[in-house]
Amino acid sequence: MCGIIGILGREPVAPLMVDALKRLEYRGYDSAGVATLEKGHLARRRAEGKLKNLEQRLGREPLAGTIGIGHTRWATHGRPNENNAHPHATDRVAVVHNGIIENFQALRRELTGLGYTFRTETDTEAVAMLASHFLAQGDAPGEAVAKTLARLDGAFALAFLFAGERDLLIGARRGSPLAIGYGDGEMFLGSDALALAPLTRRITYLEEGDWAVVTSRDVTIFDAANTEVDRPVREAVASGALIGKGNYRHFMLKEIFEQPAVIGDTLNALINPATRTVHLPELPFALSELERVTMIACGTAYHACMVAKYWFERIARISVEVDIASEFRYRAPAMPQGGAAIFVSQSGETADTLAALRYAKAQCQKIIAVVNQPESSVAREADVVLPTLAGPRSASPQPRRLPRNSLCSPVSRSRWRGRVASSVVLARQNWSVS
Fold it and tell me: Domain check: are 266 and 234 in the same one?
């Protein structure tokens, strides 16, 4: 899950972009980079590995530009090295990209035939080359981007930075999320609200197929048909103070040790211990009328669904079908009219899960989302959201530094299991649901 940040600011943006990318480290990445305008020309700094390597590079070779784009990359096309790291650039345009351009090989062949030389193994470079081609033909940046987007197949979020354009960023999304943040004389692009906290809390989420022309004064958004549209500005709930991995070595270790507290927080948000009842949000259906529930997810979220299937069928006596989203979306099974489908996702942005959700909607299913991020695409497209309250945040103000082999200790394992067990013991009792 790559990460994108773009800043159109009033002071040097490279340090701000690195800080924003740190807030996206939970996504996982293998290289990082930033690009800014230096006296009207594109300048890049990239590094393989962790963000500290990029910080060291910027310490040796600082960038002073007040507009820029940044990226953390999880390699899909090409090895995880500096040459393949984003941003990718020509002398006219720099691009960062989340997702996959499925027809990049055909575009590479076409552009190579026109005399363009490719220097990386990535699909993203074809986007930069194609946009440069249209700019070379005399198109303005917006026109060049519109023509470029029309030639791309696949799923993507893109941010464009142009040589000589001090007051212009362009972003686009198809299948991958992208948000616009509003500041005071400053504007921002980001993969999600976490990328933009604490820079701003006023956010617009681009909808499927949208692309946006961003200046320091305003934002103009176009849909997939290049028609100007309005999108709502939301107040984001994410706070920069809540994000970070503390003293844990990585986010996965942090999340493992947060599980007991997260389970307790989630149960406490739903359970009234005084009345021994579970309080769910208003549902678009009657629980008693459900004959079958479909649960769809990927990875460890799929494993969680398998546990939920046992509880639904053993306790609620409701038939449950569990499917991996990547298989479900292509199998395209028949679904009972008026049924309920539960989608589970840590980020709320998993591409296969989103595609499966949209299929289920087309099959007239009621959509329930179990997600960490209440502002994610899965949450926004669901009928009901059940948050797990387990977003990327510090477990405590000063989390205990853990020894490298702490999870391997039998004592540590037994204590951890005991904490989890005590957190879920209430869920095994005979609670009523209201």
Answer: no
Specify the pTM: 0.76
- Of 196, 219, 242, which residue is a domain's last? 242
Q: Is the dihedral of CA 227, 228, 230, 233 positive or negative?
A: positive
Please report the beta strands in 185-267, taking only residues with DSSP state E, as ranges in sequence order.
187-190, 202-205, 211-214, 219-222, 228-229, 234-235
Question: Domain check: are 233 and 284 in the same one?
Answer: no
Q: Cis link prior to 87 (omega < 30° from 0)?
A: yes
Are 166 and 278 members of one domain?
no
Question: In angstroms, rounded to a whole number, what is the distance separating the alpha carbons of residues 358 and 343?
Answer: 11
pLDDT digits (tens, 9 = 90+) for 326-356: 999 888 899 988 789 999 998 888 888 999 9
Question: Which one-letter amino acid corresponds to residue 382?
Answer: A
Look at residues 310, 306, 312, 379 and name the one whose alpha carbon lies nearest to residue 346: 379
Q: Which domain holds residue 223?
A: 3-242
End-to-end CA distance of the chain: give it in Å, rounded. Answer: 38
Maximum Cα–Cα distance across the chain:
74
Report the CATH number at residue 139: 3.60.20.10
Tell me the residue ranges of DSSP E strands in 103-244.
154-162, 169-174, 179-182, 187-190, 202-205, 211-214, 219-222, 228-229, 234-235
Q: Around Cβ 59, how many Cβ atoms within 10 Å?
A: 8
The answer to whether 338 touches 285, Cβ cutoff 8 Å, is yes
* Interval 44-73: pLDDT, tens: 999 999 999 999 999 999 999 999 999 999
Task: Looking at the structure, tell me whether residues 278 and 377 fall in a common domain.
Answer: yes
Pairwise CA distance, residues 141 & 307, whole Å:
51
CB atoms within 10 A of CB 348: 27
Residue 45 and residue 127 share a domain: yes
d(CA 321, CA 309): 7
Q: Do residue 153 and residue 276 come from a single domain?
A: no
CATH of the domain at 422: 3.40.50.10490
With beta carbons less than 8 A apart as the criterion, state whether 47 and 53 touch: yes
The reply to whether 7 and 66 lie within a common domain is yes
Q: Number of structural domains, the chain?
A: 2
Q: How far is the CA of 1 from the CAs of 25, 191, 349, in angstroms?
A: 10, 10, 9
Burial class (CB in 10 A: 0-12, 13-18, 19+), 114: exposed
Instruction: Give CA–CA dist 129/116, Å, rounded.
Output: 7
Residue 317: partners with Cβ closer than 8 Å, 6 or more residues away = none
